[in-house]
Amino acid sequence: MLGNIKKKMVTTRKAHTCFGCLDEIEKGKSAVYVSAKEDEQRLQFHLHEECNKTIARDQWFSGSGLYKGCIKDALKTSEELRSIDISSVDELPLIMTKFKNSVEV
What does the DSSP assignment read for the chain? Predict the structure, then answer.
C-alpha cells in the first residue's frame, strides 16, 4: 500500500507514461507528479489530471487498488460487465430458493 504520498501539478518537460491508464502524457502538458513510498521503497510517477481525479473520487483505489495500469484495468472490467447480455430470468447468476418461513401468495 502506498504511503507518504505527495502530489503536485507540473508541466512535463518530456513525454511520460501515465501510471493509471498507461497512455502517454505528451511533452509540455499539465500532469500530476506523485512521490510516494511503498514497502520502504520510493516511487515516483506521473498521472493525467483526469486519471488523478478518477483515483481521488473512487475509494477502491485508496487501498491496494492503486497499481500501474489500474485505471485501464478498471475500465476494461467495467466494459466487460456491460457487455454481458442476459435475455431471460433463467440466465441470471442468482440461485432463487424458497425460505423456510416464507409466505406464498
Answer: --EEEEEEEEE-SS-EEBTTT--EE-TT-EEEEEEEEETTEEEEEEE-HHHHHHHHH-GGGGTTT--TTHHHHHHHHHHHHHT----SGGG-S------TTPPP-
CA 88 to chain CA mean position, Å: 31
CB 12 within 8 A of CB 27: yes
> pTM score, two decimals?
0.68
Could you tell me the pLDDT band of residue 96, with boundaries at 50, 70 and 90? low
60: number of Cβ within 10 Å = 12
CB of 39 closer than 8 Å to CB of 68: no
Q: How do residues 47-84 score in pLDDT, each as one tens digit?
A: 999 999 988 888 777 666 688 888 888 877 766 666 76
| C-alpha neighbours within 13 Å on the C-beta side of residue 10 | 18
